[in-house]
């Protein structure tokens, strides 16, 4: 449910289906800095309706740091695909303790996960592996929320360059508070607040996903390298 502080020109209950309402939100929040966007956002939506997810990848710490200062008790969902790097699991524990995250781990259905493991599904069918281990587990959580905070940024790839701060996607409203942050902005934020990084960054991994489908490289060029795939499926 949207709080009553919303502008009088719009019907709060209609927000998922009203493009003019989304246009209004985009214009309003476009003038804010990322942290101010989050502050305004938490005044607008009920906490119980908000979904926040993280991969503990190369830039995850920035959004988690901002949210932890504003809504420290907000649940943070981590999709444990079973295929993360050991460095990512270590980083998860480090950040959980440092920021005091209310972390909730979700997992794929065990039988289906074991199928992908035994058949090495990531070799022949990347999309199916992502669907079983990442997309399906998240879909079950999304059903219980109305708005999803996402850390996507426009500079990351062509698919993300056309995003807006607020968008409706598959029945849920997505909020991209970091959308216009550049690589330099991310690095500066980490430096100012002395935030730790996933150790894989210093080994040449700019974007970090599952171990079988992530290689060293700049930007997201190491994700599903050698294929046409650019997204795991949860953001499309």
From TrEMBL:
<protein>
    <recommendedName>
        <fullName>Adenosine 5'-phosphosulfate reductase</fullName>
        <ecNumber>1.8.4.10</ecNumber>
    </recommendedName>
</protein>
<dbReference type="InterPro" id="IPR002500">
    <property type="entry name" value="PAPS_reduct_dom"/>
</dbReference>
<dbReference type="InterPro" id="IPR014729">
    <property type="entry name" value="Rossmann-like_a/b/a_fold"/>
</dbReference>
<dbReference type="GO" id="GO:0005737">
    <property type="term" value="C:cytoplasm"/>
</dbReference>
<dbReference type="GO" id="GO:0046872">
    <property type="term" value="F:metal ion binding"/>
</dbReference>
<feature type="domain" description="Phosphoadenosine phosphosulphate reductase">
    <location>
        <begin position="50"/>
        <end position="215"/>
    </location>
</feature>
<feature type="active site" description="Nucleophile; cysteine thiosulfonate intermediate">
    <location>
        <position position="232"/>
    </location>
</feature>
<keyword id="KW-0408">Iron</keyword>
<dbReference type="GO" id="GO:0070814">
    <property type="term" value="P:hydrogen sulfide biosynthetic process"/>
</dbReference>
<dbReference type="GO" id="GO:0051539">
    <property type="term" value="F:4 iron, 4 sulfur cluster binding"/>
</dbReference>
<keyword id="KW-0411">Iron-sulfur</keyword>
<comment type="function">
    <text>Catalyzes the formation of sulfite from adenosine 5'-phosphosulfate (APS) using thioredoxin as an electron donor.</text>
</comment>
<dbReference type="GO" id="GO:0019379">
    <property type="term" value="P:sulfate assimilation, phosphoadenylyl sulfate reduction by phosphoadenylyl-sulfate reductase (thioredoxin)"/>
</dbReference>
<feature type="binding site">
    <location>
        <position position="130"/>
    </location>
    <ligand>
        <name>[4Fe-4S] cluster</name>
    </ligand>
</feature>
<dbReference type="GO" id="GO:0043866">
    <property type="term" value="F:adenylyl-sulfate reductase (thioredoxin) activity"/>
</dbReference>
<keyword id="KW-0963">Cytoplasm</keyword>
<keyword id="KW-0479">Metal-binding</keyword>
<comment type="pathway">
    <text>Sulfur metabolism; hydrogen sulfide biosynthesis; sulfite from sulfate.</text>
</comment>
<feature type="binding site">
    <location>
        <position position="129"/>
    </location>
    <ligand>
        <name>[4Fe-4S] cluster</name>
    </ligand>
</feature>
<dbReference type="InterPro" id="IPR004511">
    <property type="entry name" value="PAPS/APS_Rdtase"/>
</dbReference>
<feature type="binding site">
    <location>
        <position position="210"/>
    </location>
    <ligand>
        <name>[4Fe-4S] cluster</name>
    </ligand>
</feature>
<keyword id="KW-0560">Oxidoreductase</keyword>
<feature type="binding site">
    <location>
        <position position="213"/>
    </location>
    <ligand>
        <name>[4Fe-4S] cluster</name>
    </ligand>
</feature>
<dbReference type="Pfam" id="PF01507">
    <property type="entry name" value="PAPS_reduct"/>
</dbReference>
<comment type="similarity">
    <text>Belongs to the PAPS reductase family. CysH subfamily.</text>
</comment>
<dbReference type="GO" id="GO:0004604">
    <property type="term" value="F:phosphoadenylyl-sulfate reductase (thioredoxin) activity"/>
</dbReference>
């Amino acid at each position: 449910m949207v709080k009553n502080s919303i502008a009088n020109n719009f019907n709060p209950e209609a927000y998922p289906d009203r493009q003019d309402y989304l246009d209004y939100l985009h214009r309003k929040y476009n003038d804010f800095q990322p942290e101010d966007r989050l502050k305004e956002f938490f005044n607008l939506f009920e906490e119980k309706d908000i979904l926040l997810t993280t991969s503990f990848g190369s830039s995850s710490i920035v959004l988690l740091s901002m949210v932890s200062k504003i809504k420290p008790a907000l649940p943070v969902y981590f999709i444990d695909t079973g295929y993360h790097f050991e460095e990512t699991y270590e980083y998860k524990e480090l950040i959980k303790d440092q920021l005091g995250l209310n972390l909730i781990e979700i997992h794929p259905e065990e039988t289906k996960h074991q199928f992908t493991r035994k058949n090495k599904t990531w070799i022949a069918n990347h999309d199916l592996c992502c669907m079983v281990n990442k997309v399906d587990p998240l879909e079950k959580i999304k059903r219980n929320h109305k708005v999803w905070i996402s850390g996507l940024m426009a500079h990351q790839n062509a698919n993300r360059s056309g995003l807006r701060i607020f968008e409706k996607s598959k029945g849920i409203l997505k909020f991209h508070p970091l959308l216009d942050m550049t690589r330099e902005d991310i690095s500066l934020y980490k430096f100012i607040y002395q935030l730790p990084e996933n150790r894989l960054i210093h080994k040449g991994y700019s974007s970090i996903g599952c171990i079988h489908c992530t290689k060293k490289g700049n930007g997201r060029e190491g994700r599903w390298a050698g294929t046409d795939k650019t997204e795991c499926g949860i953001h499309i």
